[in-house]
Structure formats: C-alpha cells, structure tokens
Amino acid sequence: MLSKEENAKVTQVGPGTPMGELLRRYWHPIAAAQTLDTELVLRLKILGENLALFKTYKGALGLVQERCPHRSASLAYGIPDDEGLRCPYHGWKFDAAGNCLSMPYDDTENPENVFKEKITITAYQVQELGGLIWGYMGPLPAPVLPQLSRFTNAEMSRVIDITALPCNYLQIMENSMDPSHFEWLHANRINFTARKQGKPEPMVPGRTLALAFDEFEYGIYKRRIIENDPPETSPDWLIGHPVLFPTTLALPWGFQLRTPIDDENTLHILYNVREHAPGEAPSTTVKSTPWCDENKEFILDTVIGTDELAWLTPGAISPRHEEHLGLLDRGIIAYRQMIFDNIDRIQRGQDPQGIIRNPEDAEYTYGTEGDLGGGWRGFHAPNPGAGNNQNPQVAVAPTG
Fold first, then answer.
1. Tens-digit pLDDT profile for residues 58-68
2. Mean of the pLDDT values across residues 74-85?
3. How far apart are CA 185 and CA 176, in angstroms?
4. CA–CA distance, 49 with 45 (Å, rounded to integer)
5. In what helix (H) or strand (E) does residue 208 lie, and over which residues does it extend?
6. Which residues touch 181 (CB under 8 Å, ≥6 apart)?
7. What is the pLDDT of residue 388?
8. Per-residue model confidence (pLDDT) at position 366
9. Nearest to 54 by CA among 43, 64, 62, 46
10. Taking residues 70-91, what's their average pLDDT?
11. SS3 state of residue 74
C-alpha cells in the first residue's frame, strides 16, 4: 500500500507538485485535430491548468492560458485571425508564443504604444501528429515528440475515440499494469451481464497461470500465460505488450492514451489503427464516447466498459492507504516505483526515462499486428522474465 502522503505525491498533477512536474517533461495528446479544424478555439484543462487551444487562419497552432491578463475574460471564447488569438472582450491579441501583439484602443490613441510589449501570457508548445494535437507544458528546451509509425504512417486509417473520465490518471495506468484482470473483470463480468440479459455468454474465461514484468528504457513490458494458451507460442508471453511511461498503453491495434485533466479527471483516448484496403483512401474518424449509458450506469457488455468500472468505482482518487496488494500486483508495484524513481531524477536535475533529445532517435516503427516488440525500432523487447525484479516461473493463483 501507499501512505496518504505517497498517494498524494503520485496523484496530484498540478504545477509545482512532484508528479505534475514529472508529467510536464513529456508530450501529451490534448485534442483531436479534426475538432480544432471546425471549432478553431477550444477550452481545455490539462494538468490542472485552464488553457485555450487555437488555430490561426494561416494554420498555426497555439496553446495559452485561458485568462486574458487585461480583465480576466476567457480566451477560449476568443477570435482567431492570421497571426494569433484576440480576446473577445476588448480585442487584445496574443500570438502562439504568448506575446501581446495588439491593444486596439490603446494602439489607436497611441500609435507608439509600447505597453503591449510588457504584456505576455503563459504559452506552451503544440504539434499535430497522427490526427491528434500534442502539448508540451514543461521546461525548455522541449524534448522531441516521438514519431511512432502508428502516428506517422500515411497508409493507416485511424479511429480516435475520446472520453472524459471522472477519475485520477493513476487508476487507469495501474489497470494497465494488471494483466491478470482479464479472467474476472472482462470474461466473467461480461458473461454475467449476458446471462442476465438472456444472451449466450460471449467470453471464455482463462485462468492466469503466470505473469512477468520487464522494465526497459521506455517503460515496462507486461506478459502473461493464460490457461490453454501455450507459452511457447503465445504472443502475450513471448512478446507481451509495453506500457510506455508515463501514461500510454500499447496494444496490437493501437494505443490507449491517458492525459490528466486535473487530480480527479482524465482525458482517455482510444487510438485504433489499421492498414486500409487496396483502393481505399486512408481516413481518420473521431468519436466522443461517454463512459455510462443514459441512466448513468456502466456499460458492462464491453471490454472498455468493464475497464471503466474498475477505473471509476474506487472514487475520483483511489484510497491506496487502504489496499492490500498480492502476488498479481507486482506490475503495479513496479510502475509505482518507476514513478518515484523518475520524480527523484527530475529533482536531481536529470531527464526522466524515455525522454528523446536527438531527432534521429524519434522515429520508431511497429512490426505487423501481434509483433509489438521485435518490430519496434529503438525499443528492446526483453526476453520473458529478463526484468531485474520478476520471475516468469512464478504461477499466480487466480482470485475467486
């Protein structure tokens, strides 16, 4: 378990907090590019900060503080032009770097107005990649935005499914470090839902027989052996799939991307890719999906719906001082230790793990579906159980 103080340390994401400062060293997806194409200006809250994301009429992107420094009106309702964003209240204009370019009345009264040169607002770097807008909110110089092929490949079709979840990011990430939950949370719970509805049971529960977690430069590979899935041929064991530190789960068909909104809310992005068929034009589809039905009940006949049950029912911030961890929680323990280790690194003035400074190292490629490890240039997929603190031969008794 974690103490209350340790839990606060790893769940508080605002500026100046240990975890907030760690998360600010990484690029995070903050919106779908298509949404900005139609709206031009969006109101966002990311890492506890109220922001305005905008696109000028010339296509330049900007991410700035929401509050206008003149009279505190919201720049999220501002008016873009070719150069920047104007406040809707009096037209003060700011560029993507946060510089004040114009004060309409003052400029008219005083053509030599230099007061605007003294006014700046907080501004962050943004880039578009793979149909998403990415933001960097940390110290400069910014690291290189990883150019994973699933984002850069023009031959891919993409479905981007976005959900705002009322819980802390860590509950979602710890679920990704817990591969044993398939048997009960997904298979048995979905089958129970089907029985109640008078439908055939769609899932085949398989007992978890062994788990392994292997740390590598960019995160942790998780592996499992499930009953009737021979380890000598199972991709789940031989290859596994990586959790990319700090907030991404890689899957054979895409990613689950998690961006903290604040301490109690998270932007969750399901990013699914596929190669388009011959003669088919690649496409990007953006959806917004609620985590509950019209009655505010969980949707318990899908895998993601049952995951959301596990993410949300502990409350906005899980009371980790009350938990009791067992053998199957070794991945969670490893991930938490990775957080604490990387907080220590930035407090010593070092880059945290996985930060890319050389643009030549930013281009990675995935192999074919199911080949998560070996086809990922720049990432090393360790042999099963090669991690420094795990034993792949340890069988984990199923719960229940």
1. 999 999 999 99
2. 98
3. 13
4. 5
5. strand 208-216
6. 175, 310
7. 38
8. 40
9. 62
10. 98
11. strand
Three-state secondary structure call for residue 276: coil
- Distance between CA atoms of residues 140 and 272, nearest Å: 31
pLDDT at 399 over 70: no
Q: Where does residue 299 rank: exposed (0-12), middle (13-18), buried (19+ CB within 10 A)?
A: middle
* Residue 148 falls inside a structural domain: no
141 to each of 125, 144, 343, 351, 358, how far by Cα in Å?
A: 10, 9, 19, 11, 12
Backbone angles phi, psi at 203, to 5 degrees: -110, 150
Encoded tokens for 240: 């596994």
Say which residue, 217 or 314, is predicted with more confidence: 314
pLDDT tens-digit readout, 345-391: 999 999 999 999 998 888 754 433 333 333 333 333 444 444 433 33
- Spatial separation of the C-alpha atoms in residues 203 and 389, rounded to whole Å: 33
Q: Is 48 in the same domain as 163?
A: no
pLDDT over 70 for what percent of the chain?
91
CATH of the domain at 64: 2.102.10.10
Q: Which residues make Cβ contacts (< 8 Å) with residue 306, sequence separation at least 6?
A: 185, 186, 189, 190, 298, 300
Residue 266 counted as domain residue: yes
CB atoms within 10 A of CB 293: 11
Same domain, 194 and 328: yes
Q: Is the Cα dihedral 331, 336, 340, 343 positive or negative?
A: positive
Range of the domain at 48: 27-142
Phi first, then psi, for residue 150 (nearest 5°) are -65, -20
Last residue in a domain, options 113, 142, 171: 142
100-102: strand order across its sheet = 79-80, 85-86, 93-94, 100-102
Q: Give just the sign of the alpha carbon dihedral 356, 361, 363, 364.
A: negative
Tokens (6 digits) for 178: 């817990």
Q: Is the pLDDT of residue 238 over 90?
A: no
- Token couple for 370: 């199911």
